[in-house]
Amino acid sequence: MSPQSDASPHRLEFVMDPMEEIRETFFIECEELLEAMEAGLLAMSEGDDDGETVNAVFRAVHSIKGGAGAFGLDELVRFAHTFETTLDEVRAERLNATEEVLSVLLRAGDVLSDLVAASRDGANIDSDAISALIGELHEIAGSTGDDDASNGDADDEEFESFTPMSLDFGLDDSVGDDGSTSNAFDISFKPHKALYERGNDTTLLLRALSDIGTVTSTCNAEALPSFSDFDPEEVYLTWTVCIETEQSETEISEIFEFVEGDCDLAIETVENNSNILSAFESDSDDQESETIAPASAELEDIAAVDGNDDTDATNTEDVSNSIETPNQAPKEETPAEKKTSVKKASPKDQQGGAKATVRVDLERVDRLINLVGELVINQAMLSELAVDAGMAQNSSLATGFEEFKQLTREIQESVMAIRAQPVKSLFQRMSRIVREASSATNKSVILETDGESTEVDKTVIERLADPLTHMIRNAVDHGLETPEKRIEAGKDERGTVRLSAAHRSGRVMIEIADDGAGINRERVKQIAIDKNLISPDADLSNSEIDNLLFMPGFSTAKEVSDLSGRGVGMDVVKRAIQALGGRINISSTPGKGSTFSISLPLTLAVLDGMVVNVADQTLVVPLNSIVETLKPHDSDIHVVCDDATTVLIRGTFVPVIDVGFQLGYREPLEQFNDTVMILVETEEGAKTALLVDAIQDQRQVVIKGLEENYGHVPGIAAATILGDGRIALILDADAIVSSLPSVSPDDIQMQMAG
Amino acid sequence: MSISVLAVDDSRTMRDMLRLALVSEGFDVHLAEDGVDGLETLKGISPDVIITDINMPNLDGFGFIDGVRNGNNPHSTPILVLTTESAPELKQRARDAGATGWIVKPFDKDKLVAAIRRVAA
Fold first, then answer.
1. Are A721 and A704 in contact (CB under 8 A)?
2. Which whole-number Å values give the CA distances from A167 to A162, A171, A247, A294, in the listed order?
3. Measured in whole angstroms, how far is the alpha carbon of residue A217 from the centre of its chain?
4. What percent of chain A has pLDDT above 70?
5. What value does the mean pLDDT take over residues A85-106?
6. Size of interface A-B (CB pairs under 8 A)
7. Whether A349 and B19 lie within 8 Å, measured CB to CB
8. Which of A190, A258, A314, A646 could lock onto A653 through a cystine, CB 3.0 to 4.6 A?
9. How far apart are CA A483 and CA A184, in angstroms?
10. What's the pLDDT at A212?
């Protein structure tokens, strides 16, 4: 198609087929449009009756249709068209956006996004579902405005019927000439003032005529007034043009297409006056020319549906006139060929882009992020070397290094920001899940979202989709009660699932809350006992019982439905969240509902950490879990429950974990002089003191994953390379804490009291 | 002097396609995202031809044409309307707004270029 396509097969951006590139842009744009559409439809279903909202939805669908047409995605065009026709009814306020109508529109939106995906991936499409929805869309649109429904049909016909119409072209041409392709037409043309006002120009029309044939034109200036009466904006001239051309009358009408109604126009075939199409008088009024307009306009449209069909028409014509006109088809095709072969990426291509957005291959961004990570390490290393080499604290060199550090950090933050995306798209996808879950369970559900503009790393967003989907399904399927039970409990018949995101102290918090019955703790505990996950006499706090849901192998089989099973896969959900450096937590109030809280790091690439020494090892404790650090006195240390050590901090006993022992570096310490304690807080809010030997520094470290090479190491989240080139392990504070034998602070209090 | 064209369309895909088609024809191409952006862009350039979409946010094609015809630009700048709808009423409405002609989407490159040449002085 273009000279680029036979270039190197590597899909580097600059040698990429431009059309292929635009096709990719189209699908990216489709994603955005689908989001906008969904957002609009959701706003409408929440009672937003602003005309602009409907308009935005209409525009989104309309743009998808427009682009799809350009790439010959007929299925998509057809569906988008029907969808758009119905939306137009809503837009024109002929159709009320009732709940029923919106439900159809929302489902149509889902199908549209499926169709876009299928078109992109070349996948199969469930045509039954589409036909069914097209039917529904017609139904709701048709019940109010028959006119437009039929309009839509007319448009549909265009797509289907252009081939037979093209054949007519050929027949038209061959009428009345015996093998000869040259026709002569008399054209009488009187422009109106409006023609010039709209930017048309007689000169250009005459020039266009002379491009397709031999033109003899006569200008009639009889009406020209004397100079004193002359109005420069008035029109006084008329033209009579005689043209000899190989083209048909259609081509001539086409030239005048834009000025129909703005002039008196008559085209007469010289040899064959009986031709109905050309039989109109030179003084025909606007009314008469208008009757022609739709017909010729339609021909133009039909021809414009696909450029190839023009060629088809010509070929057909060629066949029908197969004897003496071998030149005609090539003549038609040559200019087109020439034009396409000129296509090349000219420098102007870049100039034209007015807007400051750039599409970048994700790989390039990741490479940049990686490099910046190395830069951070290198910067730290340089600083350390300089200090070792005796750099004076207040020297200008030290100031320079400080600035260097600042800059590096800023570069890093900016680079990270490239990957950050609002969670909006993710949340919008969830509304579809809620819809599907709600119709599968016959529960009426409202999805509330909050904090959609919260930005999170792109990978985090992508990898959150599955766990979130699962949890949303769970919330609808098991969290919410049946409508009957809700009414019994005095609640609104419609359940609410709330999805929210927020930045909180350097992390992203995502919450999925339902206003259902809450977790049935007795049953959960019983199931855990039945499955030998806990001992029957285990004394568990409420939060511990709730967290049983995350245990592998836990499944509340009684509740399993075709949609989801509470507990089934919750361990998978937890693992997925943990793999993102996140934590998940449940809280539940009987009768009021359950809340799942997910806490995630903003980025997967760096973290702020405290560098500590433990048994001659260097470790990094993530800063976001640290509450405070302290040097304990021996008198504050208390050993309870045989081995459990606690420390008294401001009147509260906090369990102590000897990190060195926990990780197997050494035997437990006997005395705690010269140690430092790092007080960490877990997601559940429990505080634990981590015992380390010394604190070295607090700095940003680049996370290097361990799992790929070493698998999951309990208590260790990842590793990093420090400025001096040493490798340090990054502690997983939560994992370390949860490895503590189950002694809750409450127990300790009890022991101390008793 | 190459023909300079301002194309106004809210769809990035459509803008890319217009640019591809027009640049390959040697036209000098300027792009705008909606009517407001289009009018803003026109403060800096005087294109020979303007192409505009109808359905756009902020300021639609009709409003944009109105702004051009009644603005500081020469009112005779030819304006071609890009439309997916081929309904005669729509063309009439575009014409009433002051459009010079129209191009039906999805456009055929040759027809687009022909239409531009037909209206560009």
1. yes
2. 9, 7, 15, 19
3. 57
4. 75
5. 82
6. 160
7. yes
8. A646
9. 78
10. 78
Query: What residues contact A349, with CB distance under 8 A and at least 6 apart?
Result: B19, B20, B23
The verdict on a CB contact (< 8 Å) between B16 and A25 is yes
Long-range CB pairs of A527-533 (<8 Å, 24+ gap) are A527/A554, A527/A555, A527/A556, A527/A557, A528/A554, A531/A555
Nearest CA in chain B to A210: B118
Strands A727-731 and A617-622: parallel
Each residue's pLDDT tens digit, A500-545: 998 876 678 899 999 988 888 888 888 888 887 777 887 788 888 8
| Amino acid identity for residue A677 in this structure | M
What single-letter amino acid sits at A38? E
> Cα dihedral angle (A128, A131, A133, A134), rounded to 10 degrees?
170
Instruction: Note if the pTM is more than 0.90.
Output: no
SS3 B8: strand
Q: Which of A276, A290, A251, A269 is nearest to A169 (CA)?
A: A251
pLDDT value of residue A500: 93
Structure tokens at A319: 């066949």
Would you state the pLDDT for residue A356? 59
Closest-CA distance, B17 to chain A, in angstroms, reads 7
- Helix intervals (H) in A71-126: 74-91, 99-121
Report how far residue A746's alpha carbon sits from residue A754's, in angstroms, rounded to the nearest whole number. Answer: 12
Residue A741, preceding bond cis, omega within 30 degrees? no
Residues A516, A534 contacting (CB under 8 angstroms): no
- The answer to whether B55 contacts A257, with C-beta atoms less than 8 Å apart, is no
**Measured between alpha carbons, how far is A570 from A592 in angstroms, rounded to an integer?**
21
Q: What is the mean predicted confidence (pLDDT) over B74-99?
A: 75
DSSP structure class, residue A562: S
Residue scoring higher pLDDT (A166 or B37): B37
Contact across the interface for A355 and B95, Cβ inside 8 Å:
no
Q: How far apart are the first and last CA of chain A?
A: 87
A595 band by pLDDT with thresholds 50, 70 and 90: very high
Shortest Cα distance from B16 to chain A (angstroms)? 6
Burial class of A77 by CB neighbour count within 10 A (0 to 12, 13 to 18, 19+): buried
Q: Cβ-count burial of A235 within 10 angstroms (0-12 exposed, 13-18 middle, 19+ buried)?
A: middle
Residues of chain A in contact with residue B77, where contact means CB-CB under 8 angstroms, are: 199
List of chain B residues whose C-beta atoms are within 8 Å of the C-beta of residue A26: 13
- Smallest CA–CA distance, residue B118 to chain A, in Å, is 6
Query: What residue type is assigned to position A570 of the chain?
Result: M
Integer Cα distance of A729 and A719 in angstroms: 4
Q: What residue in B sits closest to A197 (Cα-Cα)?
A: B76
pLDDT band at B1 (very low <50, low <70, confident <90, very high): low
Yes or no, beta carbons of B23 and A346 under 8 Å apart: yes
Q: Could you tell me which of A371, A368, A482, A382 has the C-alpha nearest to residue A417?
A: A368
- The mean of the pLDDT values for chain B is 82
- Pairwise CB contact (< 8 Å): A343 & B20: yes
Is B62 in a helix, a strand, or coil? Answer: helix
The two structure tokens encoding residue A213: 């044939």
What tokens does A669 get?
């310490």
Tell me what pLDDT residue A16 has.
Answer: 57
User: Which candidate from B14, B17, B119 shows the least CB-CB separation from A258?
Assistant: B119
How many Å apart are CA A400 and CA A702, to the nearest integer? 22
Q: Phi-psi category of A572—alpha, beta or left, where left has phi over 0 and alpha has psi -120 to 50?
A: alpha
Instruction: Give me the phi and psi of A56, to 5 degrees please.
Output: -65, -40
* Average pLDDT over every residue of A173-198: 67
Q: And the tokens for A102? A: 């919106």
| B78–A305 C-beta distance less than 8 A | no
